[in-house]
Amino acid sequence: MAKKSFNLGLPTRDQIIAFINESREPAGKREIAREFGLKGNEKIALKALLKDMAEEGLIDGSKTAFHKMGGVPKVTVLRIVDIDGNQPVAVPERWEAEGIPLPKIRVIEAKGKRGALGIGDRILARTEERGPGLVAHVMKKLAKGAAQILGVVEGSENGRFWLKSVDKKSRFDTQIGDIGDAKPGDLVLAELTGNQQRKSARVTQVLGDPFAPKSFSLIAIHKYGIPFEMPEAAEREAATVSKLPVTADHRIDLRHLPIIAIDPRDARDFDDAIWAAHDEETGGFNAIVAIADVSYYVRPGSTLDREAEKRGNSVYFPDLVVPMLPHALSSDKCSLRAGEDRAVIACHLKIGKTGQVTSWRFTRAVARISANIPYPDAQAAIDGRMENPLLETALKPLWACWRLLARARHKRAPLELNLPEKRITLDEQGRVTGVAEREQLEAHRLVEDFMIAANVAAAKALEAKKSSLIYRAHEPPSREKLVALKDYLKTFDIDFALGQVIKPETFNAILAKIIDEEIRPQIMEAVLRSQTQAYYGPTNVGHFGLSLGSYAHFTSPIRRYADLIVHRALVSAYGLEMPKPKIAGVEPATGLTEGAIAKLAATSEAISRTERRAMEAERETTDRYIAAFLSAQVGQVVQARITGVQNFGFFATVEGVGGDGLVPVSILGKDYFHFDEASQTLIGEKTRQEYRPGMRLELRLAEANPVSGSLRFELPEGGSYAPQPPRHKDKTRKYDVGKRGRPKNIRHQGKKR
Predict the structure, then answer these.
(1) Angle at the Cα of 590 from the Cα atoms of 586 and 591, rounded to 5 degrees
(2) How far is it, in rounded angstroms, from Cα 250 to Cα 285?
(3) 10 Å Cβ neighbour count for 649?
(4) Could you write out the DSSP letters of every residue in 292-326?
(5) Element spanning 241, H or E
(6) What is the pLDDT of residues 179-236, one digit of tens each?
(7) What is the reported pTM?
(8) How far from 440 is each of 98, 379, 387, 505, 657, CA to CA, in Å?
(9) What is the pLDDT of residues 577-620, one digit of tens each?
(10) C-beta atoms surrounding 728 within 10 Å
(11) Beta strand ranges found along 610-734 (DSSP E)
């Protein structure tokens, strides 16, 4: 603590800074004056000195709490940005020290309240230096801060600036009060301020050109807070562990087998490979599903492990991948590339002649993949349209084995929903050149069935060993959703009894009866909406959609943390631990630790959230690329299909391409449309014109916004504003056309004001 200088005049600048740094409480003008015994005119002189020190860049803050310039106040508001292991990491909510990196502060929670803080929470905290950095002690948890939104800056003729949100659900633009360094056309992150009636936006970060290559993916990354930059510590650790030897020592040698990997042509990583051979004794097959041994490289509690757990999964965009693991592992040492020795965990399966898996075991092995074959090439070789040197030794035995698995699958009767996946093609500059549905081949089903067999084997093997694990859980539909589905199917004269035992084959039977190609997609989508969402959990509830009693994810540890947990559980259950490696700082590859078992429920919940986050981000990015592709067709009439109907209009998609756009009820002509909720249909009061899900029709593409991914359609012949009809007691009527008020400083996105 600085020496008090009673009646000796003002303290020096160094004495003031020393006192501020050493004080355990906020050090304002009053505290400084008390510390140094200042009175009367000396306090006035102190005020001037503190002002000079602030202007010189020595201190920052206010008269009630100063701190060293570039430092963190003793008491300040922090925002949680990360969870490192079990410890929250925070940054100052406001940071204006130019040229000084934003400090990351370890947050110490009180006993009994640990785990209460999550990413995005705000706290009032007391900070102090400890070791090489700062720690913060929670004083109070604060309300959530101002909302952050992503948008594009737009200018107007009157000199004002507006923020156009990238969220397709947003109907209004927001006036920008503080534009900072941004300019019209920039993609920015902004903070909403003000109240509901008078909102304003303050630009906090300029992200650049929204139409530059990879920007569509970056919009989703920023919007959903997906960890994008891999920490240097994780990269360094990956570089170290990638030097671990891969030999037949302590491993089964599978390098003599023609094991192949069948993947998409544009695959970014290869974490599974398969082999099968006929078993003369049983009439069935012996098969191996070889999966990258990620647990050999990613040790429990390591920097790599903590980062992988935080990310939960890889995120795949058309133009880039946000990997769960550094590229040194995800696309190199753990990727099963042909001709290179790779560490794998092998699932050895015996498949009977009826297609049932009769036994399984798991080993650590070394494999050398014979070939990486794209799906279309594998299918072409089997169909006799392309030569392949592995046709007889690898492909034909795999197909023969798969036909048995397919027979067992058919008997099991899992839910069969034909939902095509979109494939985006880009040129070298990152511009979208095409959108098409991915081809559905036998080769896809073959790989899927081998992976399902291995996942089931992993779950049952761990259950037999009484081991803890993370299951892939999918519960049956809720009664509420089944009642809604029954009401919907009734509008098509399709009976659906609620008293029966609901199984996946119940829905398959409904779909099998639909021969009308216009109705079939909408029935399929209704069945899909009735299903629950799959999730991860430590308790087995079965997998309804696959019609399986036990199911776990084992086959993709490069891109899913759940699979890595299952691998570690198998290592422990089967005694597959490896000896301590001869590399400094690298611990032995252990199995599932007691600490990991204790927090399986929390881990399951966390990775379920990151999975949903990835799905939403990937879907939105695909929509943006589709909107960019369709922007060249604005004004043209396109073939469309109605995907959903609401009281305010209907949504439609472009046939064969995708995307989702609204046709407001207000432009459907002069007729008044009732909304029938049971059949989800808009019905014209006078014309009896109907708009229902699944209906195919021609629409004019009025707008395609690549930044938000939204489309807007019109009827080809146009329409006029529907007049307000007289009020009556029609229970199906849900929509009133009329003016809608909006807050000040807000403009409707449909018009420039």
Answers:
(1) 150
(2) 26
(3) 21
(4) E-GGGTS-TTSHHHHHHHHH-B-EE-SS-EE-SS-
(5) helix 232-241
(6) 988 999 999 888 877 665 677 888 888 888 888 878 899 889 988 889 988 999 999 9
(7) 0.77
(8) 54, 11, 21, 21, 16
(9) 998 888 888 888 789 999 999 999 999 999 999 999 999 999 99
(10) 6
(11) 637-646, 649-654, 658-664, 673-676, 681-684, 690-691, 696-705, 710-714
Question: Tokens representing 383?
Answer: 């169909």
Q: Take residue 469 and report the two structure tokens written for it.
A: 């694990």
Tokens 């992150």, located at residue: 189
pLDDT in tens, 163-195: 988 887 777 888 998 898 899 999 988 887 766
Sign of the alpha-carbon dihedral angle for 389, 392, 394, 399: positive
Cβ neighbours for 309, distance < 8 A, ≥ 6 positions apart: 561, 603, 606, 607
Q: How far, rounded to the nearest angstrom, does the alpha carbon of residue 460 sit from its chain's CA centroid?
A: 29
d(CA 31, CA 20) in angstroms, rounded, equals 9
Q: Of the candidates 168, 169, 218, 211, which has an alpha carbon nearest to the alpha carbon of residue 189?
A: 218
Tell me the β-bridge partners of 749. Answer: none
- Measured CA to CA, the distance from residue 696 to residue 655 in angstroms comes to 9
Tokens of 101: 């990196």
How many Cβ atoms are within 10 Å of 350's Cβ, its own excluded?
16
Instruction: Please give the Cα distance from 485 to 529 (Å, whole number).
Output: 9
| Cα distance between residue 106 and residue 104, in whole Å | 7
Q: Report whether 331 contacts 269 (CB < 8 A).
A: yes
End-to-end CA distance of the chain: 61
How big is the CA angle at 222 (ends 219 and 223), to the nearest 5 degrees?
80
Domains of the chain in start order, with CATH, are 13-68 (1.10.10), 75-142 (2.40.50.140), 232-474+536-614 (no CATH), 479-531 (no CATH), 634-722 (2.40.50.140)
DSSP-derived 3-state class of residue 698:
strand
Give the pLDDT mean for 723-727: 37
How many other β-carbons are positioned within 10 Å of the β-carbon of residue 612? 14
CB 70 within 8 A of CB 100: yes
User: What angle, 0 to 180 degrees and rounded to 10, lies between the N-to-C axes of helices 479-490 and 520-530?
Assistant: 160
Contact 661, 711 (CB under 8 A): yes
Q: What's the CA gap between 10 and 530, in Å, rounded?
A: 75
